[in-house]
Design a protein that fits this description.
Helix content is 35%, strand content 22%. It is α+β, with helices and mostly antiparallel strands. It folds into two domains: 4-157, Chloramphenicol Acetyltransferase; 180-371 and 384-439, Nonribosomal peptide synthetase, condensation domain (Chloramphenicol Acetyltransferase, 2-Layer Sandwich), CATH 3.30.559.30. The longest helix is centred in the middle third of the chain and has 25 residues, at 176-200. The relative contact order is 0.19.
């Protein structure tokens, strides 16, 4: 049996985790319960429990290996028990329950994922919080894994199922010149990324609301916001740019509005640096386990008072990033993981985690969802709020997905540093209304 080692980036996500800063991403799916079911949440939990046993990727755990020193690999969990991964939670407020559950790290001795079925007082609705460790999946791979647990049929038939990549072939002697050239090219790329990071500068006047003190409290709060996709498209068609440009602009404008309402001082110069992950998966390729990510770095123009001017500045910045490509700029820091020996990840993981605050100020990520409808036990997914991990020293992370005709923002915050997360969600809504009026 060939050992399947974690890729360098997957290993990096595994090593930088700490108890106060778990490195799992999540999604809160809100279901419209099937009317014929007396306890749809319990039925959903039973289905998830049965189905997860048939998905090989959900039965694998991570373990350290002797060689290469510092590396880790995947292995089947001989003691896999679905009851350790699927939980039925009766709660008066399913959405409020998601925050403490996101704060709790996954068990590193088991396959790194969980599904919490959250049953509230409304018999017509329930929610499921999915948690996948970032070493297991990025946003697209997590979607593909979750799809294996939903009802089969037209709703998920169009979504490719993930499978592990085959192990890399052992290089032959005749391959060495090409391997050497590739290694030299990789070193050049790493130096270019490092130079771009240096040019991006250290944090300038970042608002206190985006920082979590000496590292954060380990607490988590979650908020969700649903906006009409038609409104976003209306803004795009009149003002220009892409849908993603508009969604990022809403974050910039929402932050400005929220900080102003709190009485915080806005920066006079460049705004906070947003890390915007970019998928490196080929269009049309099957989603697979693990991470295929790079990123862009963008200054959010929260100091700009004019909403349309903010959109223009976001559009210009994103166009500049796209012209440079996702493998060269300061946001491509994830690619540096490929140039670190496994032992470096093991010994340097805590140091890298501490450095996140120096690299960027807020994460703003987008996870595309397919256009068809997900169901579980006949209950239909009505809303999907993606949830991103929170880096050490950061107070806020923003994730966004479009499902059906609705844009869903998922906000994750350090609960102690950001006690008014719901106010930020409302500020995003008000910013959309402002932009719609500006283009009307």
């Amino acid at each position: 049996m060939v050992t399947e080692h974690l890729s360098p980036l997957d290993l990096a996500f595994w090593r930088i985790e700490s108890a106060d800063h778990p490195m799992h991403l999540g999604a809160l799916a809100v279901f419209e319960a099937a009317t014929q079911d007396p306890d749809p949440a319990a039925r959903a939990a039973a289905l998830l429990t049965a189905r997860c046993t048939t998905v090989p990727g959900l039965r694998r755990r991570i373990h350290d290996v002797l060689l290469p020193v510092g590396a880790a690999a995947w292995a089947p969990d001989a003691d896999f028990d679905p009851a350790r991964h699927v939980f039925l939670v009766r709660t008066p407020d399913p959405r409020a329950a998601a925050g403490p559950l996101m704060a709790r790290p996954l068990d590193r001795d088991r396959p790194p994922w969980e599904a919490h079925v959250l049953a509230g007082p409304d018999p017509c609705s329930f929610a499921v919080l999915f948690k996948f460790h970032h070493a297991l999946a990025d946003g697209l791979a997590a979607l593909a894994l979750a799809a294996t647990l939903f009802d089969e049929g037209p709703t998920v038939r169009g979504l490719a199922r993930p499978r592990p990549e085959p192990p890399a072939p052992v290089p032959a002697l005749r391959d060495l010149p090409g391997l050497l050239a590739t290694r030299i090219q990789g070193v050049g790329q790493a130096l270019e990324i490092g130079a771009a990071m240096a040019r991006s500068g250290l944090p300038l006047a970042v608002p206190d609301a985006l920082t979590a003190g000496a590292g954060g409290t380990g607490t988590r709060a979650v908020a969700g916001l649903a906006l009409a996709l038609d409104d976003v498209n209306r803004i795009r068609k009149v003002a220009g740019g892409t849908v993603n440009d508009v969604l990022i602009t809403l974050v910039a404008g929402g932050l400005r509005r929220w900080l102003t309402d709190r009485g915080d001082t806005l920066p006079e110069g460049p705004g906070p640096r947003a890390l915007i992950p970019v998928s490196r998966r080929r269009p049309g390729a099957d989603p697979r386990y693990g991470n295929r990510l790079s990123g862009y770095l963008l200054r959010l123009p929260i100091e700009e008072p004019d909403p349309l001017r903010r959109l223009e500045r976001v559009r210009t910045g994103m166009n500049r990033n796209k012209e440079a490509g996702p493998t060269r700029g300061a946001g491509a820091v994830a690619l540096l993981a490929d140039h670190v020996h496994p032992l470096g990840h093991r010994l340097g993981g805590p140091l890298v985690a501490q450095a996140a605050r120096l690299l960027f100020d807020i994460l703003v990520t987008s996870v595309p969802l397919p256009g068809f409808t997900f169901t579980l036990g006949g209950s239909r997914v009505r809303e999907v709020y993606p949830l991103a991990p929170l880096a050490r020293g950061h107070a806020l992370a923003v994730a966004v997905s479009t499902y059906k005709d609705t844009v869903h923002y998922g906000l994750v915050a350090d609960a102690a540093a950001v006690p008014d997360l719901a106010a930020l969600a409302e500020a995003l809504r008000e910013e959309l209304d402002t932009l719609v009026r500006e283009v009307s």
